[in-house]
Amino acid sequence: MRRYENPFARQLALICCTTIVFLGLAGCTSDAQQKAQGPPPPPLVEVMQVSTSDVPIMVEYPAQTYARNTVDVRPRVAGYVEKWLFTPGATVTAGQPLYVLDLRPLQAAVIQAEGNLHQSEADLEFAKGQVSLLQAEATLASAKANLEKARQDFERLKPLVEQDAASKQDLDAATAALSSNQANVRALQAAVDQARLQTTTQIKSTEGKVESLRGTLTTSKLNLEYGTIAAPIGGVVGDTIVPVGGLANPTALQPLTTIVPLDPMWVRFKVTEEQYLAMAAGRVNKVRSEPPITLVLADNSTYPNKGKIENTTNQVDSRTGTLELQARFPNPQHTLLPGQFGRVEVETQIQKNVILVPQRAVQQVQNLRSVYTVEAGDKIAARPVTTGQRVGENWIIESGLRPGERIVVEGLMRVRPGLVVQPKPWHSPAAPAPGSGSQSSGGGE
Predict the structure, then answer these.
(1) The pLDDT of residue 279
(2) Is the pLDDT of residue 438 over 60?
(3) Helices 168-226 and 104-129 meet at what angle, rounded to 10?
């Protein structure tokens, strides 16, 4: 009686006995209900019928975006910045004005060049008038007339003197006059030749000066146009370095700003030498046309526009054994910016007539993989399989399954070998196209 002197011990013993009685009654009731209701129905599972298909194999490479044809905006003439006509980060078009310099010195240079040109053109007109040459030619013509008169006087007096009809003194005077006029004509002829040469030289010299001044005027007008600095290409303009009132100098080390074309955007990535040779062999043998490539961004989102490999660099990097490939992506919305990191998925080959199953259907225990198949009579069987490459959310099955067999995709926790199930068709929630996944590659740095 001493064991039950403690009231708490007596209560605990009573509770245990009562619980055992109730559990026994509940077990008897449950067994009775099960016998009355019959066996449970077969568990419901979702199955798919495997088949063969051609599967493109994708390889991933680390990649980075960059802008080709980035242009530094520099002034062509020196001047102080008077106006900004853009907002940093805005999209500009080719020829759009960006800066306006102080145009007054450039306009004054144009006016001065025009004045010098007009003066030279007037000098040219005067040179072409050949005034000094005309005067020399007129003097020469007068001298030639005097010479002709002296010759006629000499020829008239000579026979008269021979006939003693005229004095010999008159003939001597006529002879002297003839010699004097001949010398005068020769001198004036030399003066005419010299005047003609001087006039021709003056005309050529003045014409050259006129052309030079026309060039100076053209340069001055160009400098005046360069006073308004326009965008050489279209793209997104960056921030400016020279503020309003600052000096823009063509010889400055830093540009005024930069313009980056964003459409298209270029992506560079590196492949190993073996991978490049395989790609080159496929192009040479025309195994398939160059497939489009996919860009996966840093947040694992897929860029909607497909790209295309356009060119490669001209040599393999001897340090890493890789070759850089460059692809072009349409970027109309300017979603991509230069310098972004991501991954590109490139199709390397197409495997013919392979079986593709969802990864969720494959069970793995250590290094062994298996699937549950639905055999005749909807009975479950475990089937070991050998998997190949992963393609998106699927595995390529190299051995262990035949086309037409059914495998369990959903409800794997409710089945075991030998259990009869109630199958229904499985439908992929996303239904991705074959080859939407990728295989990682270490081709990039």
Answers:
(1) 72
(2) no
(3) 160
